Amino acid sequence: MKVRLRLEPVGRTIEVEPGTPLRDVLFGYGVEFPCGGRGRCRRCRVRLLEGASEPSSEEAGILSQAELSAGWRLACRMTAATGLTLEIAQWETSILAGDAKFEFTPREGLGVAVDLGTTTLVAQLVDLRTANVMAVRTALNPQAAHGGADVMSRVQYALTGEGRAELRDIIRAEIGGMVAGMLVEAAHGRAPSLITVVGNTVMHHLFCGVDVAPLASVPFEPRNDGPKRFRPAELGWDLPADTEVRFLTCLGGFVGSDILAGIMATKLDESDALIGLIDLGTNGEIVFGTRERIVCASTAAGPAFEGGRISCGMRAATGAISEVSLDGGNLVCSVIGQGQARGICGSGLVDAVACGLELGRIQPGGKLSGGPLGLSSSLSLTQADVREVQLAKGAIAAGARILLKRLGAEMGDVRRLYLAGAFGNYINRESARRIGLIEFPPEVVEPAGNTALSGAKLALFEAEPANLRVEHVPLAADPEFLDTYVASMPFHRAGTA
Ligand code: FES
Description:
The protein is an alpha/beta fold and 497 residues long. Among the domains are: 3-88, Roll (Ubiquitin-like (UB roll)), CATH 3.10.20; 110-269, Domain of unknown function (DUF4445) (Nucleotidyltransferase, domain 5). Helix content is 28%, strand content 24%. It contains 15 helices and 24 strands. The strands form 6 sheets. Strands 10-9-8-11-13-12 form a 6-stranded mixed beta sheet, sandwiched between helices. Strand 15 (283-289) and strand 16 (294-300) form a beta hairpin. The radius of gyration is 23 Å and the shape is globular. The chain binds FE2/S2 (inorganic) cluster.
């Protein structure tokens, strides 16, 4: 006899076999498992509204007595033993697709472009005669429920026993399902001739079944042997044998084909003027260059801008404070979905720190005075949160400074700086400049949407740029990195440091 689970506020009832781990079913409803279900991060919290589930010792250790009494539990520690009604706090995560227009040479047939992100997946079915998008699928990356939220956790998990095959099979099955769903919806019996996939180096290795061991230690160099090509049967996909699945080439270190796609989408490699591209995720990926020379780096910005390691942090989903402004001396917060604030996401965090600086509550050195910075009746930023922001923004700013120096250029030489990804799309440019995260004049900074997906779409029409040479700069090995990093951590208003 199956067990019924009622999920609120989404209002869904599902039936599962008794003893099913909740991790296996709730991920599909937006509950995330950032520590891979190890009971360490608290981010998979759900609240029991009806039914009983005795807290495990891990739950008792990491949740307060007040939280336990209020019904809070860790989904990663629970199984479906009896019927339950659960409030799931994380739902409706918005995932940035991509509808940027581009020039193309029409071809016959259909193509599929896939952006395989550490956190999110986006796929588009494209009519190759018109470049029109016929169907879209988005999903959270299901590897996260097993291998943790960040790339290094996935690498560690892939190094254990069956982990590598498990993560490979999970992601291939998920993307195969997304492709199949789009074909049923919009292809009228036709199949794609080409499927292009882009992603960071770890996603590349896991999808392609490549050993991740070289990514686990210095010098973190991937296996770089050009685009990987597959036939559908190799991936377990039910598509015609002549469909080609192509994972684009990694550039080096943790800079993957998502950035190659970004270079293609922004035409950075064809530009006479100096152009930059920054993808602000857990790994800040940074590129600067012209048609003459391109340098790139990845910088371990940490998960702060995705809500990680922030006491009230969360991803940009319903209930997240996404904007903070000042009204007189008061902070005014905008919440995604306009309901009660449940936490703060990256764009809100940058705003909140900028406001704290304006109010004098946060000193340029990062000291928070007068106690936690209140955001709502129940949410506030702590001193430790402010330090996390410093670490993250210092890593990005230092990476940009070092790459420019490699090119013999200065910030004023940059004619356009594209910000890729969801965070880059929604971040307030003035706030980013105020805290010294993006130290470029606002007029050169341009949100560029999901450049990884745009480039993957472009790759349906044209080959990867021939002879594209991108110098990968391993920041950790750069003798100036540490000093530059430390110098980049204070919250100086950009242009005044
Ligand atoms: S505590 Fe981290 S996923 Fe449950």
